[in-house]
UniProtKB/TrEMBL annotation:
Occurrences of domain Isopropylmalate dehydrogenase-like (ranges): 4-331
GO molecular function: isocitrate dehydrogenase (NAD+) activity
Signal peptide: none
The family this protein is said to belong to: Belongs to the isocitrate and isopropylmalate dehydrogenases family.
Chain spans, region Disordered: 125-145
The protein's name in its UniProt record: Isocitrate dehydrogenase
Organism whose genome encodes this protein: Cognatiluteimonas sedimenti
E.C. designation(s): 1.1.1.41
Length: 335
């Protein structure tokens, strides 16, 4: 089977980590064909747009995209390219795994294996209705939570638990204070959880969840929460296992899915071959799962682990003296 995916090489270190990732995927012979499309600064320079129509058409046509980090210029236009992509394709589920890896600069080199499932389209993070008073002294923003948005993200989390053999979902909220918005999310989550008697459901207030993650992250399996809380918690989880260089992300909707490294463009090291490609490679593994190739996804993750264990050509952030392509070649040799 051949599958065409949209590939967005990105800005800063994006092209380097994308080339490394495609090198590994090609070595695996997973039957992928690439349709390259531009977004971010490269697209702005060539077309005058951050998200050209041709790129949107490519994602719409292929339904799957692999994306490197993009730069949203300061100033006018939309607040974030990533947020805009989520809105346009209704990518309602943000899925962020955090797993311990060997030979990383991590507080938890073992024991962490959790997934944060974050609602991706509404809530405080969407910054709806932003307004600054004429005197500049008062800023307001609307926080909207819907039954539909809450139901589909919680159901996604429970279905993910069943599909991957996980046994527990923790619903994270602030319903003790935000009784309307977070209260609705918790109410709907309880209704959905009742339909999954085989999956244990826990509830945690968001501040307690953060404390528990720092103290005993091994107690968590899947976390499901609202947009802003999920944005914060997922980065906290990345910090538990070595940082954003090991943090992939999937943005899933009914009609499209975009897989990415969640870190930034790191312009300070762009073009120097120092970038760690693991986050995008792990995003590619999520993509292979999504495409119905779980055996290939497992092979890719195991090859990354084996390369880390061997300390083979590791990039400087991992304590090695290798470069991006050498690291990718070391991983490719193991798949």
């Amino acid at each position: 089977m051949t599958q065409t995916i949209t590939v967005i090489r990105g800005d800063g270190i994006g092209p380097e980590i994308m080339d490394a990732t495609l090198h590994v995927l090609d070595a695996m012979d997973v039957g992928l064909q690439y349709e390259f499309a531009d977004a971010g600064l490269v697209a702005l320079e060539t077309t005058g747009e951050l998200l050209p129509a041709a790129t949107m058409d490519s994602i719409r046509r292929n339904r799957v995209a692999l994306k490197s980090p993009l730069t949203t210029p300061v100033g006018g236009g939309f607040s974030s390219i990533n947020v805009e992509l989520r809105k346009r394709f209704d990518l309602y589920a943000n899925v962020r795994p955090a797993k311990s890896f060997p030979n990383t600069r991590s507080r938890f080199p073992s024991g962490v294996d959790l997934i944060t499932v974050r609602e991706n389209t509404e809530g405080a993070y969407s910054a709806e209705g932003q307004e600054l008073s004429p005197d500049g002294d008062t800023a307001t923003s609307i926080t909207k939570t819907t039954r539909r948005g809450s139901e589909r993200i919680v159901r996604y989390a429970f279905d993910l638990a069943r599909r991957t053999g996980r046994k527990q979902v923790t619903v994270v909220h602030k319903a003790n204070i935000l009784k309307s918005t977070s209260g609705l999310f918790l109410k709907v989550a309880r209704e959905v959880a009742a339909q999954y008697p085989d999956i244990q459901c826990n509830e945690l207030i968001v501040d307690n969840c953060c404390m528990q993650l720092v103290m005993r992250p091994e107690q968590f399996d899947i976390i499901v929460t609202t947009n802003l809380f999920g944005d914060i918690i997922s980065d906290l989880c990345a910090g538990l296992v070595g940082g954003l260089g090991l943090a992939p992300g999937a943005n899933i909707g009914t009609d499209a899915a975009i897989f990415e490294a969640v870190h930034g463009t790191a312009p300070d090291i762009a073009g120097q071959g120092k970038a760690n490609p693991c986050a995008l490679l792990l995003g590619a593994a999520q993509m292979l799962d999504h495409l119905g190739l779980p055996e290939k996804a497992t092979r890719l993750r195991e090859a990354i682990v084996a390369t880390l264990e061997a300390k083979d050509s590791l990039t400087p952030d991992l304590g090695g003296s290798g470069n991006t392509q050498a690291f990718a070649k070391a991983i490719a040799s193991r798949v």
